Amino acid sequence: MASNNENEQNAIDKLNENLSNASERIANNKKIIYWAVGIILVAGVFALSYFFIYRNPHLKGAAEAYNQVEVTAAGNDSVAAAEYKKVADQYSNTPSGHLAALEAAESFYDQGKYKDALACLDKAKISEPVLNANAIILKGDCYVNLKQYDKALDAYKEAAKKGDKNEQIVPRALLKAANVYDEQKKYGEALKCYEEIKNDYPLFRLGTTSVDAYIEREKARLGK
Asked: Which residues does 35 contact at the CB level (< 8 Å), separation at least 6?
């Protein structure tokens, strides 16, 4: 116990010594301190100037550029992809820039340009959980079309995890994963996906076919 008290006292003494030394340095170097304060004040003014003169107009410009593409390129995937990509590249550090990257990815995907779509998706940093999960699903779809099935599965699993238990997003990611497992003839893994949909998302509908039918199909393939 005495040892602990001694250690604590040594630590306090060391702190007091450091504070004393700091006081002496300040007294002996007032000119340097004055310069340092001046630099800090200049930096503060610069930061405020950046925010009001550059940052706000930059954000506004990004939003305007994004909206302009929506108006001028509606219905034309090739134009939309190119223009959204320009916005994404120019305003890469803004929310509008990230959305533009996502829009560009969707347009590239619709054109069958899956590698270009993936490149844009890598630039799209989306914080909203459902929209982010959708972006990850799109990444999985790109990998499927490139026949990179393991990467597709990783994307669908990530989307299911980050989908915030959304009743539509998560089972859709699981359904896509099941389809990939079927392509790989991993019917047991596909079965797990369908059973998770049935148990955790009973309101989800697979068109006119019930999830039970898919479960029975996988069991038949497994000889169950």
From this structure: none
Residue-wise pLDDT tens digits, 168-223? 899 999 999 999 999 999 999 999 999 999 999 988 887 777 899 999 999 999 98
Tell the residue number behind the tokens 């959305």, with chain if given.
99
Burial call 74-90: b when 16+ CB within 10 Å, e when fewer? eeebeebbebbbebbee
SS (H, E, C) the chain: CHHHHHHHHHHHHHHHHHHHHHHHHHHHCHHHHHHHHHHHHHHHHHHHHHHHHHHHHHHHHHHHHHHHHHHHCCCCHHHHHHHHHHHHHHCCCCHHHHHHHHHHHHHHHHCCCHHHHHHHHHHCCCCCHHHHHHHHHHHHHHHHHCCCHHHHHHHHHHHHHHCCCCCCHHHHHHHHHHHHHHHCCCHHHHHHHHHHHHHHCCCCCECCECHHHHHHHHHHHCCC
Residue-wise pLDDT for 61-97, tens only, equals 666 766 666 667 666 777 878 887 887 788 777 877 7
